Amino acid sequence: MKRENVVGRANVEDTPELEAYYRALEGEELGALWNVANEIEPWYPQPKSIPTIWKWKKVEPFVRRAAELVSAEKAARRVVMLVNPGRKEWSAAAGLLYTGVQVMNPGEFTSAHRHQASALRFVMEGKGAYTVVDGERMTLGARDFVLTPNGTWHDHGVEESGTQCTWQDGLDIPLMNSLDANFYEVHPEVVQKAIPGGPKKDGWSKPYSPVFLYKWDESYSQVKREGFYEYKNPLTNGPVMPTMGARLELIKETKPKRHTGSLIYQVASGRGWSEIGGKRFEWEEKDIFCVPSWTPYRHGAYGEAVLFCFHDIPAMKALALYREE
Q1: Residue 54 vs residues 120, 128, 226: alpha-carbon distances, Å
Q2: Which helix (H) or strand (E) holds 79?
Q3: Do residues 323 and 259 touch, judged by C-beta distance below 8 A?
């Protein structure tokens, strides 16, 4: 039998001797590259991630129910994950990016911890939320954007006087796990002691932004003025963290484009649509959807609409893997 010259197969004719050879290779944990070459090294990116939208109307009941069924103390991080049908083995929303919706009630808090994965949060709703990152305590409001860079101690909570709060978590957990580079550590105290006035940041040399909190009002005024607002490290004018970036987009109908790197969008305000990989998705406020790497996409809006997006393009560029059309 002659193997066709198709993806994953070289143009090699099978014989009984060759089949026996393949079986012998497998018995020694070996393999023939010519049988899988185009599968493991394709002509162009072929993401397993599927363009997916998580409608808030469907997600919200599960988020609210989680707050009733599981305590924040016992869950440690009470989060409803958004898992892509094609990336379940990584618990990823797209590519090697993870996202989920965390919910906290007034008076609840998480214990302090740190991890190798970089993390960011976009507040969806509620009042009285706060986070402490390496001793810097920050009060969070709706649509605020906050960083917990890799290796930083952090904990979160909601004041007793606040309301139930939800926010989107975004992390590069699947990337760290794929590199076998992830770590997780619990703080010696249940929660950190906030440093009065915040920690000193003179002579900052860390690879992430010294600004951890980007308030919505200022960010929104920027995107209204420019149409596009990239959250940046003010010291380098580069991305906020080495592996992940984030931005706001004021949506007007766009032309199709594609690039390496995956995107996770949340609708900050308004209504509109996106065509991703030839499929049309209608979206409204708080909906979340993904654009897998190298998948053509474009957006349009019904009136004014702003999308929040986080992505792994900084990692792509750092590794010289970024390409766009």
Answers
A1: 19, 26, 28
A2: strand 79-81
A3: yes
Q: Is the pTM of this model over 0.85?
A: yes
Residue 23 backbone phi and psi in degrees, to 5: -65, -40
Beta strands 98-104 and 184-186: pairing type? unpaired
Q: What is the pLDDT, as a whole number, of residue 325?
A: 96
Sorted by sequence, the CB contacts under 8 Å of residue 41 that are 6+ apart come out as: none
The C-alpha atoms of residue 196 and residue 112 are separated, in whole angstroms, by 18
Q: How many CB atoms lie within 10 A of CB 71?
A: 12
Tell me which amino acid residue 57 is.
Answer: K
Which H or E run includes 233?
A: strand 232-233
Please state, in angstroms and rounded to a whole number, the distance separating the CA atoms of residues 171 and 302. Answer: 30
* Residues near 181 by beta carbon (within 8 Å), at least 6 away in sequence: 116
Give the Å distances, CA to CA, from 48 to 95, 104, 283, 312: 8, 33, 23, 16
- β-partners of residue 269 are 306
Q: What is the mean pLDDT of residues 175-181?
A: 97
